[in-house]
Design a protein that fits this description.
With about 230 residues, this protein is mainly α. The chain has two domains: about 1-140, Lysozyme (Orthogonal Bundle); about 155-215, Roll (Membrane-bound Lytic Murein Transglycosylase D, Chain A), CATH 3.10.350. It is built from ten helices and five strands. The chain has a three-stranded antiparallel beta sheet. It has a two-stranded antiparallel sheet with strand order 1-2. Strand 3 and strand 4 form a beta hairpin.
Length: about 230
Amino acid sequence: MDYIGAYCPLAIEIMYKYEIPASITLSQSLLESNAGKSKLTKETNNHFGIKCHSDWEGECYYYSDDEQNECFRKYEKASDSFYDYSDFLHKNRYASLFTLNSKDYVGWANELQKCGYASDKFYACKLIKLIEDYNLYLFDEDSDPNTKKNTKNCSCICGNRIPYKSYNGLLYIIAKKKDSCKQIAEDVGIRYENLIRYNEISRNFRLCNGDIIYLEKKKKKQRFRILNML
């Protein structure tokens, strides 16, 4: 899914800065914005369905959701919505979230529903399903802020590619639309033959947007298309 590929780096950045699991950020934005396709999101860059409330001083957009002509926050760009969401979850109402383990996405989803983030009684179930359908929990690995320097952005060796560290401790990147293994190998500065071998694929293997490409030799056989993003 293009949406996940576009916003996972931002969700990971938020995880380090605000201690919100990336899987939760991504699943909520996916659900609330219909993967960026909802009318509200297109008109306002509001990816989390956050309403104005009394403390909002920015632009407003009136839209009928649970009730007629409700006031929703409007942002200049999508990233503003993600950062505002991060601040929003740090209000007292959601303080209980931050007593949970950062990798307990089930606990976080249930607590969000318990705290009243949404009126949908199946809200937690929907978040958990998105996380498990798209394996978003992989982005929660190495979520301790103190390990950031070891897990994100090795631009010194990877050009304009952003590498992450997987659950098994290996560096990987996420393939983009129309990517090829040969181009990736050239961009990150490793031999094409090694990249093919690390990922246990053939030379004529066609990448899809969102595929995980390992940049190191795997310690044990792993499934290649972990995220199953189309």
